[in-house]
Amino acid sequence: MRATTVFTAVSLITVAGFLSLSMLHVSSSAMASTSDAEEEEDYNGILVNEPGADITFAYCAGCHSERIVAQQGLTRDGWEELIEWMVEEQGMGEIEDPDYSEIVDYLAAHYGEDRPNFPN
Predict the structure, then answer these.
(1) What is the pLDDT of residues 15-55, one digit of tens each?
(2) Is the domain defined by 47-120 classed in CATH 1.20.144?
(3) Rounded to whole angstroms, how far apart are CA atoms 79 and 73?
(4) Which CA distances in Å does 105 have to 15, 23, 73, 97, 108?
(5) Which of 11, 18, 34, 48 is the most buried (most CB within 10 A)?
(6) Could you give the CA distance from residue 109 to residue 76 in angstroms, rounded to a whole number?
(7) What's the alpha-carbon Rg for the chain, to the nearest Å?
(8) Which long-range CB contacts under 8 A does 89-94 form with residues at least 24 apart?
(9) CA quadruple 116, 94, 57, 68: dihedral, nearest 10
(10) Where are the alpha helices (DSSP H) in the chain?
């Protein structure tokens, strides 16, 4: 009888430990999801949330704030010249198609000369 009681106690402790670790994992995952959502919400608060925002953010925010992108008001040619300048003078790696076209299309559509006032 005593062996059964010890076995039951050990089993309960093992199950409790497993559940605690499982809850810790769930809590960590929930916190990571919240952080990811906050990060996405942050860049979406600056960049226009339309197709092309993700790829533009991925390439541009690696070197500077997305606010710098949002402040610009350039024609399509102006965006192409600015990207060329960043490659030639600032050491940015070239952006290959289809990414290049998607980024320039996005920038020209949402950050042209007629863009709305800078957000925030």
Answers:
(1) 444 333 333 343 333 434 444 444 444 455 788 889 999 99
(2) no
(3) 9
(4) 55, 45, 14, 12, 5
(5) 48
(6) 8
(7) 25
(8) 90/63, 92/63
(9) -50
(10) 2-46, 53-60, 66-71, 76-90, 99-110
In Å, how far from its chain's centre is CA 42?
9
Tokens encoding 5? 């009681």
Locus of tokens 């960043």: 86
The one-letter amino acid code at 99 reads: D
Q: Return the domain boundaries, the chain.
A: 1-33, 47-120
Rounded Cα distance between 92 and 60, Å, is 10
* Tens digit of each residue's pLDDT (9 = 90 or more) over 60-113: 988 998 888 988 889 999 999 999 999 999 999 999 999 999 999 999 999 998
The label of the residue with tokens 């916190």 reads: 31
| pTM, entire model | 0.61
